[in-house]
Amino acid sequence: MSNGVNDTMLAYRLLDWQQPPQLVEIDVPTAGAGQVLVEVKGNGLCHSDLSMMELPEEIGRMIDWRVPFTLGHEIGGVIAAIGRGVAGFEIGEAVALVSPASCGVCSLCVRGHDSACPNGLTGRGYGRDGGLAQYVVANAPRDVIKIGSLDPRVAAPMTDAGATSYHGVRKVLHKLIPGSTAVVIGAGGLGSFAIQLLRSMSPATVIAIDNNPDRLSYVSDLGAHHTVNGVDENTAAELTKITNGEGVTVVLDFVGVDRTIAVGVGAVQPYGTYGIIGTNGGTLKRPWYGALPRDGEIITFQGSSVSDAHDVVKLAEQGLIRSDADLFPLDRVTDAYDALHHGTLRGRAVVTPNG
Ligand SMILES: [Zn+2]
Ligand SMILES: [Zn+2]
Predict the structure, then answer these.
(1) How far is the CA of 121 from the centre of ligand 2 (A)?
(2) Which of 71, 77, 181, 258 could lock onto 248 through a cystine, CB 3.0 to 4.6 A?
(3) Cα–Cα–Cα angle for 54, 56, 61, rounded to 5 degrees
């Protein structure tokens, strides 16, 4: 192949439904018309990858996923080849790839609501070839973000974990006036982005809740004003004390189990918002009268939009948010997923397929 790229590469692929992915050798893809070929410098691992490995065939087929495909949907790298009809990019330029797929032309996309695009169920790393390989192709310019001086390995998780948190924070920002309070439940990957975003974009007092003391000290370093250890029968009283009896303006719940939902909704003051981002099977059971914040809102989140990814990358370039990466070479990708599964990572696990 031309452009100085080797013919074959290693890729971590889901070869069949509900089978452990394998590291295999495949052909390097070619940038077609309207595409660029990206040499992957870093691919962030996401909890959703673990669910993909378990996905039943019926569901995979229903949403038009095709096995085999290469996993990995948080991608940073450099341009390795430029397809026909693509202008404005240079070989060697550092980029990150927009993680969520969207069609760009449906009624939601044209209004800028591409995070809810009904045609976005299949994309790079979920149903089609992703970034856990030395090279990946992307549509340009729509999916390609120039990242300037930002390290592609740092930028990679911004496109999914960072952008999803940003999407949530953006939806509640208008309520975070001076004197307001924002609670983040769950100080993991997404929650630690949310805490930084709240600090850099609002004057709100930020309270982080997690049952892991290490995570709480980590997010204190990132700017959380107060930390609360775990969600239990004392949490409501603790939040009341921190807010001098006023209740909190906004809760962003990155855990989403029955208990966090009950405590989160209960903590919100009138006209406040409870937003659920974590999906761990919890349900909301509240009588409407007296148990819900008066004139309050309960909102759901659905991934992120193209503009969210651009915005988060800009914030990172300006040094207003950061992403700590635990780096793994491609031949240790299984160890990286184990660490993600067992919650032993400090930052985001980022696999570096080109060393
Ligand atoms: Zn993801
Ligand atoms: Zn669309």
Answers:
(1) 10
(2) 181
(3) 125
Q: Has residue 216 been placed in a domain? A: yes
Tokens 């192949």 belong to 1
* 286 in the same domain as 226: yes
Beta partners for residue 70, in sequence order: 13
Both 177 and 267 in a single domain? yes
Render pLDDT for 160-207 as a digit per residue (tens, 0 to 9). Answer: 999 999 999 999 999 999 999 999 999 998 999 999 999 999 999 999
Within 10 angstroms of residue 355's Cβ, the number of other Cβ atoms is 7
Q: How far is the CA of 83 from the centre of ligand 1 (A)?
A: 27
Taking only the tens place, the pLDDT of each residue in 241-286 is 999 999 999 999 999 999 999 999 999 999 999 999 987 889 888 7
Are 279 and 309 members of one domain? Answer: no
Burial call 240-261: b when 16+ CB within 10 Å, e when fewer: eebbeeebbbbbbbbbbbeebb
**Residue 262 tokens, joined:** 């009950």
- pLDDT of amino acid 123: 97
Q: How many CB atoms are closer than 10 A to CB 82?
A: 19
How remote is the CA of residue 304 from the centroid of ligand 2, in Å? 13
**Domain assignment of residue 31, given as a range:** 8-160+304-352
Has residue 2 been placed in a domain? no
Q: Which ligand is nearest to the CA of 51?
A: 1
Same domain flag for 69 and 84:
yes
Q: How far is the CA of 261 from the centre of ligand 1 (A)?
A: 22
Instruction: Look at the chain and report how many structural domains it folds into.
Output: 2
Mind listing the pLDDT tens digit for each residue in 322-351? 999 999 999 999 999 999 999 888 889 999
Q: What 3-state class would DSSP assign to 38?
A: strand
The span from the CA of 247 to the CA of 244, in Å, is 8
pLDDT tens digits for range 132-152: 999 999 999 999 999 999 999
CA of 72 to the centre of ligand 1 (A): 8
- 258 lies in the same domain as 337: no
What confidence score (pLDDT) does residue 286 get?
A: 75
Distance between Cα 103 and ligand 2 center (Å): 4
d(Cα 94, Cα 121) in Å, to the nearest integer? Answer: 27
Within-domain flag for 1: no
Question: What is the pTM assigned to this prediction?
Answer: 0.94
